[in-house]
Amino acid sequence: MMNQRPIQIITTELLDDLLLRARNSPRLRAIHCLHSGDWEHCHRMLNALTPGTYVRPHRHDSDHQSEAFILLRGKLALVIFDEEGNVDFSRSRTLSPADGLLGMDIPPRIWHSLVALEDAVIYEVKGHPAGGFVLERDKNFANWAPEEGSPESSAYLSHLEEVARRLA
């Protein structure tokens, strides 16, 4: 008989613990992987984001890299951009259970970022091509957005937070 990995259960305590880890992290976010390893073609994870975290706008260029987000707790904005870095307000949304918007599925090659409006946890699913996750080909970061940790990133995050408030 094949050795099977255990069934994983998502509980409110797990979300609480993950948010605590995110609040104590220098990046103000934390991930709990549900998949067994980088080799898996479908990555499933819980991603906790707290206000003040900067998720640099990026896209996934492989046809296998759609990315889906289902909000389990909190409120966050999913900001979509055009090729020049302008916000696409017609496709950007605020995910909020109270408002009835629980998730989004982003096709490959769409520039996007996440902005935490309050402590939030998402269930994230992302595909990978043959061979699974390879860091060098996972994300294409937008050259029009500052690098995470750069002096310019805090001003850009303030801009994204203002965009997110306009969406809410």
Structural account:
By secondary structure, the protein is α+β, with helices and mostly antiparallel strands. The protein has one domain (12-167): Jelly Rolls. 18% of the residues lie in helices and 30% in strands. It contains three helices and ten strands, in the order αβββββββββαβα. It has a five-stranded antiparallel beta sheet. It is globular and about 50 Å long. It starts with 11 loop residues before the first helix and ends with a helix. The mean pLDDT is 89.
CATH class label: Mainly Beta
Radius of gyration: 16 Å
- Number of β-strand runs: 10
Shape: globular
Overall number of structural domains: 1
**Strands ordered across the widest β-sheet:** 1-2-9-4-7
Low-confidence stretches: none
What fold name stands as the CATH topology? Jelly Rolls
* Beta fraction: 25-35%
Give the topology string: H per helix, E per strand.
HEEEEEEEEEHEH
Q: Do you know the CATH architecture?
A: Sandwich
